[in-house]
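Try this one yourself first.
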């Protein structure tokens, strides 16, 4: 969508205009609630605690195109009709000679509606569905002002002069009904990014001497815009720079960063605040639009540079998963006098977020080991989650340029649980249905051909499987017998149960919530089998989680189906060692 004009116009500046409502538009349908919300918002604006000269309340866009001496109203009919009714209320309180001339609304197929807007005759309100809704809205306006009659003149003045619409004029070359369809099928409004794009591409920015060079500048901005949006549509790039899902207009992330740089006081409560910030800036004297666009593009190029750099990708990406804002990272970059200093500052932030300080008072190995040992599942879940994610990041960075990159897009689109690597006796299912579900999963596992054929499947194991089957069939269900069987299974495959070990960092890993919650407190070999199956199926499994279930960190691997307290300790030691190497190598050596 290109534009001839995009500007802010006060209600007062609309008074001499004529609007034509084409046949493809429906009739007026605003409810009393919508009318009241508009009036409440304007009233709240007039009561703001610290009024500033030049403040205004901004309405959503009015989209028009020139049609002879009228404006064809493509979008905004409901708002504009409501504005007309509010102005009519102001007029109807005055004698005829003192009434203001209002803008006109005409209709291609509903000529009677234009006449009814002027008469507002209660007697014929039920003759036409449009009349009914128009009358209901007008009555809502009258009722609303009854309790505010002492402020009516002040509200009226603000409504005329301080309420503004975003006036969006569509280029003549575009078919109006196509624009209407895009905006109204599925109720897709004009977004901040589309409005800001129109500000940059306004023809008046490039009029100058009409030279070819000016036209090329406009074309360059349009091409840059499309390229930035295309790159941000790549899942890997998008989920590197942000944690949120957003299907379209992803360039808003870059525009918001530039709006924050401009530092203009657009009210944050206004959904159009980004547009208003750019509008105020680009309307200033001596503004060079191509140069201002280059400032936007530089922000994108900075993000792109971080994305392409293996170290920055992983470290910046990690910080953004911990709710650090991209603007904070950019601020660190601005304050750093070199790339080396920037990288060091990032490591300081990682150290602060993951281990609670950016300046340890003891030698790094002792510091990390002490902090990790003090964490437990019940009290420090979020801290452990941060460390386990950092463990994955640091382990991948150790692999060098040839190693894989952490897929933040997969990670951020899933929910992640802290998973006990070996099952915990204290987490035995308590409800009968949960106990039966646990039995069903255990029987299914013990019945798999490769498990039946395995070295651990002796006659005693077969007897255990038959015992579980018999228990599942019992009616009524015997919960005491279940507890005994549950403990026997845990003791065989997850021996040496100990609360302190079970809830330590060494017995915890990251696993997607769907998988984790689907098998509950299963024994280690069941979990191992499920994780390997996920990896074979192409599902994302964090590399250190996969290593855990392959016993990569364990010195004793002759019992691959058992996870012991020694395995948990060696896993925790590997995490500590990896993090210490990471901090020392990248600038936090102490």
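Now uncover the answer:
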């Amino acid at each position: 969508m290109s534009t001839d004009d995009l500007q802010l116009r006060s209600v007062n500046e609309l008074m001499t205009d004529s609007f034509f409502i084409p046949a493809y538009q429906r009739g007026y349908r605003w409810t009393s609630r919508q009318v009241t919300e508009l009036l409440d918002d304007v009233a709240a604006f007039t009561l703001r605690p610290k009024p500033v000269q030049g403040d205004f309340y901004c309405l959503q866009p009015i989209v028009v195109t020139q049609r002879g001496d009228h404006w064809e109203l493509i979008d905004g009919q409901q708002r504009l009709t409501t504005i007309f009714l509010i102005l009519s209320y102001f007029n109807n309180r005055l004698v005829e000679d003192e009434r203001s001339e209002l803008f006109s609304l005409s209709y291609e197929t509903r000529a009677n509606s234009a006449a009814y807007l002027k008469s507002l005759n209660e007697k014929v309100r039920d003759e036409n569905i449009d009349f009914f809704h128009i009358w209901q809205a007008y009555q809502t306006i009258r009722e609303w002002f009854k309790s505010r009659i002492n402020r009516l003149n002040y509200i009226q003045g603000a409504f005329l002069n301080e309420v503004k619409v975003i006036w969006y004029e569509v280029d003549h070359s575009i078919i109006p009904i196509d624009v209407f369809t895009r905006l109204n099928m599925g109720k897709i409004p004009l977004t901040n990014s589309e409005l800001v794009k129109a500000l940059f591409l306004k023809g008046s920015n490039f009029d100058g001497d009409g030279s070819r060079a000016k036209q090329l500048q406009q074309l360059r901005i349009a091409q840059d815009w499309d390229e930035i949006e295309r790159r941000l549509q790549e899942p890997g790039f998008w989920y590197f720079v942000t944690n949120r899902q957003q299907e379209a207009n992803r360039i808003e992330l870059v525009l918001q960063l530039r709006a924050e740089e401009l530092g203009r006081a657009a009210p944050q409560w206004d959904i159009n605040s980004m547009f208003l910030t750019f509008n105020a800036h680009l309307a200033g004297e001596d503004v060079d639009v191509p140069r201002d666009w280059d400032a936007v593009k530089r922000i994108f190029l900075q993000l792109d540079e971080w994305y392409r750099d293996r170290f920055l990708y992983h470290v910046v990406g990690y910080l953004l998963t911990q709710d650090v804002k991209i603007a904070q990272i950019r601020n660190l970059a601005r304050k750093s006098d070199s790339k080396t200093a920037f990288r060091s500052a990032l490591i300081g932030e990682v150290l602060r977020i993951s281990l609670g300080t950016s300046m340890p008072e003891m030698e790094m190995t002792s510091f990390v080991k002490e902090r990790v040992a003090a964490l437990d599942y019940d009290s420090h879940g979020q801290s452990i989650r941060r460390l386990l994610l950092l463990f994955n990041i640091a382990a991948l960075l150790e692999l060098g340029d040839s190693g894989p990159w952490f897929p933040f897009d997969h990670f951020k689109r899933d929910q992640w649980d802290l998973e006990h690597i070996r099952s915990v006796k204290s987490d035995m299912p308590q409800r009968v249905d949960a106990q039966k579900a646990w039995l069903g999963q255990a029987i299914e596992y013990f019945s798999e051909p490769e498990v039946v054929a395995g070295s651990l499947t002796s006659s005693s194991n077969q007897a255990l499987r038959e015992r579980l089957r018999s228990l599942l069939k019992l009616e009524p269900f015997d919960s005491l017998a279940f507890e005994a069987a549950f403990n026997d299974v845990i003791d065989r495959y997850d021996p040496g149960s100990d609360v302190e070990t079970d809830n330590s960092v060494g017995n915890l890993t990251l696993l997607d919530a769907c998988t984790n919650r689907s098998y509950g407190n299963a024994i280690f070999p069941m979990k191992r089998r499920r994780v390997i199956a996920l990896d074979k199926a192409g599902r994302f499994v964090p590399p250190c989680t996969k290593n855990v279930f392959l016993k990569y960190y364990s010195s004793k691997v002759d019992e691959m189906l058992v996870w012991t307290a020694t395995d948990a300790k060696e896993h925790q030691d590997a995490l500590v060692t990896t993090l210490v190497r990471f901090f020392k190598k990248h600038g936090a050596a102490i």
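Discussion: DSSP finds 27 helices and eight strands in the chain. Residues 212-232 form the longest helix (21 residues).
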